[in-house]
C-alpha cells in the first residue's frame, strides 16, 4: 500500500512511476493528489482506464474532493486512456510526446498555476504495447515534463505488470513511488530543465534505478539545445550521489555535444570519477574529451 501522504512529496517538474497493488488505496492517494492540485490553482488532468470517468469523479467525491465545480470551470478534466494514448489508432510514443507541449501550453493559457497529471497505465496491457516502446516513451517524455510547471504520476498496477517490465519502466522515471511508500518517502531525483543557459539541474541521487531517465533527458536536451550554439550545462550541485556509470554517462554525452558540455557544482568524488573515465592517455579530463568542462563545487567555509 502507498501512503496518501507520499504523493505530497512531489513537486512541479517531477515525473514519477507510482506502483500500487490496492485499488481502493490508490483512489485514496489519488484523491489527495487531486485535492492538492485544486487547492494550488493547478489544472488537474486524470487519464483513466480501470475506472470510468464518471465513476472516478464519484469516487473522488466520496473521498472529500468536490469535483463538480472544478469540472465545470475546466480546472479538473477526466478522460479515458484511449482518448489520450490511443487516439491515433494505436500507441505512437513520438506522437504522444509531441502532443504534451500543447497540453501544457493550454494549461498556461488558462491561467492555471501548474499542470498536474495522473495517468492510469493499465491501458498498455489491453493494447498489448511492447514494454520497450512504453519504457522508451516514459524515458523521453521527461524532456517535456522536466519544467517547473508540470507534475506527472504514471500509475502501474504491480499485480498486473510483469516484474521485469516494471523494472525497465520504473527506471525510465527519475523517481518511483514503491508499494509500501510511507509519508517519509521522497523522490530519489528531481530533474529540472534550464533554458538560460540550456541545460539540466539534477537534485538528489542517480543510480541504476533512474539512469535511463537521466540519459534520455540529457541526450534529448543536448539535441534540442544544439541550435543555440551554446554550451550545455548540467548543474549537479544538489546531487547527493552519483555512481561511476553516471560519470561515464556524462563523459559520453560530452563527446556528442556540438557546443561542449559543462558539469558544474561537482563534488570532488564525482569530479575524480569523471576525470578517471575521461582520461585516455594520462591527460586531464578536458584534454581527453574536448568540450568537457568540469567545475568542482566550492567547499563550505
TrEMBL record:
PROSITE patterns: STAS (PS50801). It comes from the Bacteria. Residues 200-274 form the STAS domain. Signal peptide: none annotated. SUPFAM superfamilies: SpoIIaa-like. Pfam families: MEDS (PF14417), STAS_2 (PF13466). Transmembrane segments: none annotated. This is STAS domain-containing protein. It comes from Planosporangium mesophilum.
Amino acid at each position: 500500500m502507498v501512503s496518501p501522504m507520499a504523493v505530497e512529496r512531489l513537486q512541479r517538474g517531477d515525473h514519477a512511476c507510482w506502483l500500487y497493488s490496492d485499488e481502493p488505496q490508490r483512489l485514496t492517494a489519488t484523491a489527495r493528489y487531486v485535492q492538492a492540485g485544486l487547492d494550488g490553482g493547478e489544472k488537474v488532468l486524470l487519464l483513466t482506464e480501470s475506472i470510468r470517468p464518471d465513476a472516478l469523479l464519484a469516487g473522488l467525491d466520496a473521498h472529500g474532493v468536490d469535483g463538480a465545480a472544478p469540472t465545470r470551470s475546466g480546472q479538473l478534466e477526466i478522460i479515458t486512456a484511449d482518448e489520450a494514448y490511443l487516439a491515433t489508432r494505436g500507441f505512437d510514443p513520438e506522437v504522444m510526446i509531441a502532443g504534451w507541449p500543447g497540453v501544457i501550453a493550454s494549461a498556461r493559457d488558462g491561467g492555471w498555476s501548474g499542470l498536474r497529471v495522473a495517468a492510469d497505465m493499465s491501458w498498455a496491457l489491453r493494447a498489448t504495447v511492447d514494454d520497450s516502446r512504453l519504457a522508451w516513451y516514459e524515458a523521453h517524455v521527461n524532456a517535456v515534463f522536466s519544467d517547473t510547471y508540470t507534475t506527472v504520476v504514471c500509475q502501474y498496477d504491480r499485480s498486473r505488470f510483469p516484474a521485469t517490465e516494471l523494472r525497465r519502466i520504473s527506471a525510465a522515471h527519475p523517481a518511483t513511488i514503491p508499494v509500501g511508500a510511507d509519508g517519509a518517502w521522497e523522490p530519489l531525483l528531481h530533474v529540472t530543465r534550464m533554458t538560460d543557459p540550456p541545460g539540466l539541474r539534477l537534485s538528489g541521487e542517480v543510480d541504476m534505478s533512474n539512469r535511463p531517465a537521466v540519459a534520455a533527458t540529457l541526450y534529448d536536451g543536448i539535441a534540442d539545445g544544439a541550435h543555440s550554439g551554446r554550451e550545455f550545462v548540467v548543474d549537479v550541485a544538489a546531487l547527493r550521489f552519483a555512481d561511476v556509470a553516471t560519470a561515464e554517462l556524462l563523459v559520453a554525452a560530452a563527446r556528442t555535444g556540438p557546443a561542449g558540455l559543462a558539469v558544474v557544482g561537482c563534488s570532488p568524488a564525482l569530479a575524480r570519477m569523471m576525470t578517471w573515465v575521461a582520461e585516455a592517455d594520462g591527460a586531464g579530463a578536458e584534454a581527453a574529451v574536448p568540450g568537457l568542462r568540469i567545475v568542482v563545487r566550492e567547499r563550505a567555509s
